[in-house]
Amino acid sequence: MSGRHALPSRLGNLYREIAKFGLVGLSGFVLNLAVFNLIRTVAHWQTVRASVAATAVAIMGNYIGLRYFAYRDRGQEERSGQKKELGLFLFFSAVGLVIENSVLYVTTYAFGWDSTLANNICKFLGIGIATLFRFWSYRTWVFKTAGPRPEHTEAVSRGAAPAFHAPPAEPAETYFSFSAERT
What we know:
Elements: H1 3-43, H2 47-70, H3 79-110, H4 116-142, H5 150-158, H6 172-175
C-alpha cells in the first residue's frame, strides 16, 4: 500500500474498531443501567453496591462481545494467551469499575444526590469516563494487534511496496460476517 493510501486505510480501520467497540459498549451500557435500576428498585440495595454488581454483569457481557465480535481477529493463538488476555481484561475492567463507581460514590455520599434521576445521570457520567480508559487499555494491552507480516515490514523498510498475497480460501459465510477489512 502506498504512503498516500496508508493513512486513510488506518483511519478507516480505527473508525471500524471504534464502531464495533461502541456497539459492544452500548449493549453493556444498557445492561449495566437495567441491572442497576432493577437491583435498586426490587432488592433495595445501596446505590454503590447495586452499581458495582451491575457493572460486574456488564463486564462479563462486554468480554464476550469484545472477544468474539469487536476484536475477534486479534491474538487468540494459544491457551496461555487466552488466560493472559482474560486476566488483563479483568484487571483493566476492575480499574474501570473503580473509576465508574467513584463518580457515583462521590456524588451520592459527598454531595447527597441520591434520587433515581441523579443516580442514573451520575452513573452515565461515570460510565463515560471509564469507557475512555477501557477503550485505551483494551486496545493497548488486552486485544493487541498482531505485528505486521515480516515480508511487509522488510518491504516497507526498503521503501518498496509490500508484495501482494492472496488471502487464504475461506468458507462463503466468512465473507458475509462482520469482520475487519482484509489486508
